[in-house]
Write a structure and sequence with these properties.
The protein has 304 residues and is α+β, with helices and mostly antiparallel strands. It has helices spanning 6-30, 76-79, 142-156, 163-174, 199-224, 231-250, 253-260, 265-268, 289-297, and strands at 36-41, 46-54, 59-71, 89-101, 108-120, 123-136, 176-177, 182-183, 187-194. Helix 1 packs parallel to helix 5 and helix 3 runs antiparallel to helix 5.
Length: 304
């Protein structure tokens, strides 16, 4: 593994802060509601900048978070798959994004890109990147799903012909709600422990993912923003948001890592939608658009 130095870390930090600004600028094109900018620090080490839009004109909630934290030992969520890292101190840096639109024809989306570094007195630091982006539609549009996955595939191609297929599968496997026996959405790409290439190539891939998220989501918002919807469709959106919450609180490793590392709870849980419903035995009518979502979109499939 290539050694990492302060310049490497500074370059990643600079890119992540730029990415945060660029995503906020993209959202601002559609919703000029003011973001709350909340700078914070923590006793264990490090801090971040949480940017939240609430009850906007177009979005119920958007969170665009940057964090750069450190600690004396990696939490269980980070060492579960890599027990050899137990006991090491660490630095974790990343940008996390969740967009919850008002209009149910506009999908909820999620992005995360991150760098982890595990330190030990007796060996060189171990570093790896992780992240990805995924989409959770409430009403299915095949052309949107194809665009989303084509953008993901296009950004992967320069790094290897099998990268997209593997990371798409990893995304489908990860964003699966086991207790509901259903996927959270239509996926995208997801990866972790990325250090098989040299640092520059790994960092270039991270930049492609972050920039690709904007290319993937921007046209979909623009296309679906003015679709009309009724009270029943909004109700279905709130019901489906319940699944989003269940996944994040039960399975999401980022949420678990944040809570286990004594992270800033207000920032960690920014991914929660402001409005949600749990309706007992929600009725999905036959041959409805809601049934089409389940039958044609909430199933693992090849979109391109």
């Amino acid at each position: 593994m290539q050694k990492i130095n302060k310049d490497h870390v500074s370059d990643v930090r600079r890119y992540l802060l730029d990415l945060q600004d660029n995503i906020i600028a993209m959202i601002f094109k559609y919703d000029n509601s003011k973001f709350i900018k909340d700078e914070w620090s923590r006793d264990e080490g490090g801090g971040g900048v949480t940017c939240i839009l609430q009850n906007g004109n177009v979005f119920d909630k958007v969170g665009v978070n940057f964090s750069d934290i450190s600690g004396d030992h990696l939490p269980a969520a980070a060492t579960k798959l890599r027990p050899e890292l137990k006991g090491r101190n660490y630095q974790a840096m990343g940008v996390s994004v969740v967009c919850h639109p008002k209009n149910p024809h506009v999908p909820t989306v999620h992005l995360n890109v991150r760098l982890f570094i595990a330190y030990s007195e007796n060996s060189n630091p171990i570093w790896w990147f992780g992240g990805g982006f995924d989409m959770t539609p409430y009403y299915g549009y095949e052309e949107d799903a194809i665009h989303w996955h084509k953008t993901a595939k296009d950004l992967c191609i320069p790094f290897g012909k099998d990268i997209y297929d593997q990371y798409k599968k990893d995304c489908d496997d990860y964003f699966y709600i086991k207790h509901r026996n259903e996927p959270r959405g239509i996926g995208g790409i997801f990866f972790d422990d990325l250090n098989t290439w040299d640092f520059k190539n790994c960092f270039d891939f991270i930049k492609s993912v972050g920039n690709g998220f904007i290319k993937a989501y921007d046209p979909i918002v623009d296309k679906r923003l003015h679709e009309t919807y009724n009270e029943q469709q909004k109700d279905f959106q709130l019901f489906r948001r319940g699944r989003y919450v269940e996944f994040n609180l039960v399975y999401d490793r980022g949420t678990l890592f944040g809570l286990q590392s004594n992270g800033r709870t207000e920032s960690i849980l920014m991914s929660m939608p402001p409005l949600v419903k749990w309706t007992y035995k929600y009725n999905i009518e036959k041959n409805s658009s809601e049934e089409k979502l389940y039958n044609d979109f909430l199933v693992p499939k090849k979109w391109i």
